[in-house]
Fold this sequence. Notes:
This protein is α/β, with parallel strands linked by helices. It is built from six helices and nine strands, in the order αβαβαβαβαβαββββ. The strands form three sheets. Strands 1-5-4-2-3 form a five-stranded parallel β-sheet, sandwiched between helices. It has a two-stranded antiparallel sheet with strand order 6-7. Strands 8-9 form a two-stranded parallel sheet. Strand 4 (105-109), helix 5 (114-125) and strand 5 (130-133) form a beta-alpha-beta unit. The model is unreliable at 1-23 (pLDDT under 50).
Amino acid sequence: MERHKTALVLAPTLVLVAAGAGCAGQVPLTDAEKLARVEEMVAEVERRFPEVEAVTVEEVGRLLETGTVVLVDARAPREREISWIPGAITSEEFERDPDRYADLTVVAYCTIGHRSSEYAKRQNEDGRRVLNLRGSLLSWTHAGAPLVGPDGPTNRLHVYGETWDLAPSRYETIW
């Protein structure tokens, strides 16, 4: 099922709010501390996949405004059931007819960018140009960009696992 295109509106500033409760005895991370950890993880992804071209949330926003991008969700179905970037398609949808998107910039995403980098690498090896969304959904949410779920706009996000529980505090994270 192809999702409808929507405009991307990025928050002009990042609001710092205390994170939810962490492990007993630990002080919750602030959103700024979470974002710093996201950046550390992204740097590691980029070291592992130097051959995969990445695009920032801001660059994707510009591409969305011009209608020249297709976002491909490279996560597992159980993750995609929670929420996704508005207008994104699944990797299965993309692979059924990749030629349909030949005139668009194809950008894959996951939670942090590791699985979407693997996906982009495989697609690139098959002759299809696929970029990776730098920082994927974690960077997307820290930029204030919207998510949708089965019932419309949502603040729920599947983050793959506890290690990746670095979404801004305004999000309900699931893993």
